[in-house]
Write a structure and sequence with these properties.
With 292 residues, this protein is of the alpha/beta class. 45% of the residues lie in helices and 13% in strands. The relative contact order is 0.11. The mean pLDDT is 95.
Length: 292
């Protein structure tokens, strides 16, 4: 599944949705971005275009490649507009009822062989798929954040996911240039089972005065080999998103390592969410992500 004759629909134009849409257009797919709110949709499309512009500025894309990618993007608030999609990627907020309702509505719109992907990282794929009349075509595909930069996607089948849907999903993700790991449908999958407690530990270390945000980030990149430090990453993900993910995992696992530290709540209350608000652990004049 490659080329402009194939259509990808991304449901939700937030941080994850815009990142996934960027990946899809870079791979040559006609991409429909859907959001219920026109302002959110515009911000999401602007994020895609801003990422492509930055990629040109960094020499990672040619101007012609940018124009080709921009031409593949379509934004809409009309759910019926996603009818041509071969793959629908649900990237709305982490609410089980909302995701179930969306999959149920999509059933009546898209084709019988359209893949329905959910980008959840905390909810059960099986539970989400229960909202679809054909749960056999629902697959969990968790894009690591930031989706436009990170290569890894976790793939988790629901209880009724069909083998054809699983294999088609792996082929599609391969066409996006992604590396896939298959995991069980369990809270947090693999990545967030490890990542959330570690990020919480880093925040607690900062709160306790063990180091500054700069020194902790430098230690992680310089000694552990991570591509970016925890506070740089948290600013990209968003402190509100970290709080939501950590809280949901704590509610399911009842492991105190997942409970977000008090500093996270204070930052969210102050609106210091990271790059998207211009201020988080660091401050930013340019809230766009780096180019590919």
């Amino acid at each position: 599944m490659t080329g402009q004759d194939r259509v990808v629909a991304v449901m939700g134009a937030g941080t994850m949705g815009s990142g996934i849409a960027t990946v899809a257009v870079r791979a040559g797919y006609r991409t429909i971005v859907h959001d219920l709110d026109e302002d959110n949709l515009k911000r999401g499309i602007d994020t895609v275009f801003g990422f492509l512009d930055k990629s040109v500025a960094l020499g990672k894309l040619t101007e012609q490649q940018r124009r080709d990618a921009v031409a593949l993007v379509e934004g809409t608030t009309d759910l019926d507009a996603v009818a041509p999609a071969d793959v629908v990627i649900e990237a709305i907020f982490e609410d089980l009822d909302a995701k179930r309702q969306l999959l149920g509505a999509l059933d009546a719109i898209v084709g019988e062989r359209t893949l329905l992907h959910t980008n959840t990282s905390t909810l059960s794929v099986t539970a989400i798929a229960a909202g679809a009349k054909r749960p056999e075509r629902v697959v969990g595909t968790h894009y690591c954040n930031p989706a436009a930069l990170m290569k890894l996607v976790e793939v988790a089948d629901g209880r009724h996911t069909a083998e054809w849907a699983h294999q088609a999903t792996l082929e599609f993700l391969g066409s996006l240039g992604k590396t896939t790991v298959v995991t069980k449908d369990r809270p947090g999958f693999i990545v967030n089972r490890f990542l959330i407690p570690w990020e919480n530990s880093c925040i607690e270390a900062l709160e306790s005065g063990l180091g500054t945000k700069e020194s902790i980030d430098s230690a992680v990149t310089g000694a552990l080999g991570h591509p970016m430090g925890p506070f740089t990453l948290l600013d990209i993900v968003g402190l509100d998103i970290h709080q939501q993910v950590a809280t949901r995992l704590y509610e399911q696992l009842r492991d105190p390592r997942f409970f977000p530290p008090a500093m996270v709540g204070r930052m969210v209350a102050a609106g210091d969410l990271g790059r998207k608000t211009g201020r988080g652990f660091y401050t930013y004049d340019d809230n766009r992500l780096f180019g590919l």
